[in-house]
Fold these 3 entries.
Entry 1:
Amino acid sequence: MAPILSKTLLMTALLTLPIAAAAPALAQEAKPREAVISVTGDGEKAVAPDMAIVTLAVVKQAKTAREALDENNKAMNEVLKALKDGGIAERDLQTSGFSIQPQYNYPQPVDGQQQQPQLIGYQTINSVTVRLRDLAKLGQVIDQSVTLGINQGGDIQFTNDKPEAAIEEARKNAVAEAVKKAKTLSEAAGVKLGRIIEINENVPRAMPQPAYRATMMKEADSAVPVQSGENNYNVSVTVTFAIEQ
C-alpha cells in the first residue's frame, strides 16, 4: 500500500504547483493601479530664417528637340555661371528636374470627325534648386536669373541651416507647459502631484512653420521685393505624472 500512497501524494503535489505559481501573478493583478495624470504640452520657438531654397527653371520651345535643348542649355549655363560668380557654392546648386516633351496642336473636328493632332515642336524644361545662404542677395538673384533666361519657378522656402537650438528651446517650452497644465489639474482636483513617470515626444518631428510676423528684408538695389518673416518650430510632448496618495 505504501507505493500507491506515495504516487497519490506526488500527483497531488504536481496538481497544486500551477496554482502556487500563479499566486504571485494574481496578487500582482489584484494590486490597484497607480493614479496618474497625463497631459500634453505644446512648445514653439520663432527664429528668423538664415537660408532660402529657391527653384528656378528655364523653359524653351523650338521646332526640333535639338533646337529646344540647345537653347535651354545656353540659357541655363549662363544662369549657373552667374550664380557661381555671385558666390553660390557648387554644393548649393542642384538640378531638380529635366524634361523634353513634344508639343501638339489639336485641330477642331471637321464634319464631326476628330482630326489627328499635329506635332508643332518640342519643349524642354531644366530646373535648378538653389540654396541661398545670404538672404540679402535673394531679390537680386531672382532678378538676374530672369534676365539671363529663367522663365518658370520662383518657389521660395525660407528655412534655417541649423535649427537644432530652436527645436531644443521649443522642447523646453513644451515640457514647461505640460508641467503647468498638470499642476493646474492637480490643484483643481485637490490632489498632490507626484513624480514624473513618463515623457514622450509626439511625432512628427518639429518642422519649420512660416510665421506671419514678417518684416521687409533690407535690400540695396533689388528689383524683386521679398519678405523673410520668421519660422516657428513646434514640438509636442506628453508627460505622465503620478498622483501622491
Entry 2:
Amino acid sequence: MEYNSYKFYGEGLTGDWWMYTSFVENKHRRKKEPSEGSPSSFLLFWIGFFIIFIFSLILLPFGVYWQLSHSIWVFLIFFLPLVFLGIHVSKTYGYKIFFAVFLSLLAGGNVLLFLGDAMGYKLGLTAKFDVLPEEVHLNLGYRYLYLREFRLDETDVGTFDSPLLVRRRSGGAVYGPVITFQYKRILSLSGKETKQPLYAICYSKDYGTCQISSLESGGILLRESIWEKDGTSFSEGSLFIVWKNRLDGESETKIMYSILFLVLVHLVWGIVVYFPTGPFE
C-alpha cells in the first residue's frame, strides 16, 4: 500500500491556480486463501473416475469387433478429444486431471488389446465353433473359427520364409521380422469342395518350429495374408487359419487380469487425488 500525492497547475480568469490531491493506492490484490476456490477432492476423484471409465467403455466394442490395426486409429481419434477435455477441465480443477487422462490411455490400451478381444471370444461374438470347412465362407465375419468334420491334406503341405507384413500403406508396405511359415491344406471329410482354398498355418521366429496337428481344430481366421505373397503358390482368395488350441482358458485369464488392471488404474487415480503431489496441487 502506498500513499501518493499529485499537484495540478492551471490558469483561470483570476490568475494561476494550484491544486493538490492525494489518495491511497493498493498495488497488490488480496491473495486467495488456500482453501478459497480449491476444488473438492471428492468431486475431482469422480470426474477423473468417469473420464477413465467412460473412455474405456467407449473403446470396448472396438476392442471386441475390430482388428488391432484398425483399433489403433480409433484409439487416436477418441484420445485427442479426451486431451482437449482434460485441458478444459484443468482450468477449473487443476493439473491433477491430466493424471486421469494418462491413466485413460493405459486403461484404453488394455481394453483394446486384451479385454475386448477376450470378451468377444468368450461370449461367442467373434468366435464360431463347429463350422464345416465348406461353410467357412459364410462365417468370414468372425475372428476365430474352429472346424469339425475336416482333415488335413498331408500331400498339400509346405514351408516358406517371409517377412511379417505389419501393415500396408499407399504405395508400399511396412515389414516386421522374417518368419518361418508352415501350412497344410484343409479338406472336408464329406468330400465337398470349399468355396475358397482353405489352409491351416503356423509360424515361428528365429528358425523355430511349429506344428500343425489334427488334434486341433482352428484358430484365428486371416482374410488377408500376413506375408508378402510373392514366391508362394497360394491361389488368389485363399483363406488361412492360424492353427492353435482352443482359447477358453486363456480368454478367462485375460478377462480376469484385464478387469484387475482396470481396478488398479482407478485405485491409482484415487491415490493421486487424495495424496499430495507437489506442484500438481
Entry 3:
Amino acid sequence: MNKRMVQIIAKKDIKSILATKQILIPMLILPTILCVIMPVFVVYLLQTYNLSLINGLDQMVNLIGEIPGKEGEVIRGISDRKSQEIYLFVNYMLPPLYLLVPVITSMMIAANSFVGEKERRTLESLLFAPINIKDLFIGKMLAAFLPAMSISLGGLLLSALVINFLTYGQFNSVLFLTTNWLMFVFWIVPSLTVLTILFNILISARVKGFQEAQQIGGVTVLPIIGLLIGQVSGLFYLNPMIILLIGILLITISVFLLIKISKMNERHILFEKQVY
C-alpha cells in the first residue's frame, strides 16, 4: 500500500466534501438537531411536565426496573419518577437516535465520493491514473470514515456537555457516558460507519447519480429504527452484552461486503456504470 497516495486521495475527497454545500450543510445540521436541540428539548419537557401517560415512559421505567443486575438497580435507586424517565431517555432511547449521525453522514460522503466522480465527469481521470485500485479504495474509504467519525464524536461531546449541564443538579452525578454509551461510541459507531460505507460502495457501482445512491443507501437507517422500536415496545433493552453482539453482527456483515467488493478489483467493475 502506498500510504502517500492514500493520503492524497483522502485529502482530495475531504476538500471536495468541505466545498460541497449539498453535503456539508446537512452534515452540520444533523448532529446539531440530534445531539443538541432534540435532547435539550426532551430533557426540558421531562423536567417540566408529566409525560408518562403520553409516551409510555412510565411503563418502560417499570420494565427496566424489573431487569436483574446493574441497570435495574440503577433505575430502582432513582427515587424521583421524572429523574427515572430522564435516565431512561438518555441511556436507552437516545443512543439509537444518535446512530443516525454516523450512518447518514457516512452515507452522504460515500455516495458523493464514488458516484460524485461520475457526476463531476472526473471518473475517467481516475480510471486511467497510475493509482493502485487498492490505494484508491482505501483512500476513498478514509475520506468517508474520518469525517463521519469526527462529526459523530463532536456531536457526542456536545450532547454530553449539554445534557450533563441540564441534569447534574438533579442527579448530583454525571448522567451521560455510561458503559452502554462508551460501548456504543467505540464499538458500534465505527463498525456501523464502515458497514454503511461498504454498502454505499456496492450501491455506487450500480447507480448513475448522487440522489439515487442516497435513496437506496437510506436502507441502512431501517435497522436503527428497528432498534428504537424494539426498546420502546419492550422487546429488548440495550445492555453491554446486546451491544457486543450487535457489533459482532455489524463486523460480520462488513467482512461479507468487503469480500464481495474485493472481487470487484478492476476499475471498470468498481465504477462500471458511468455517466456519459
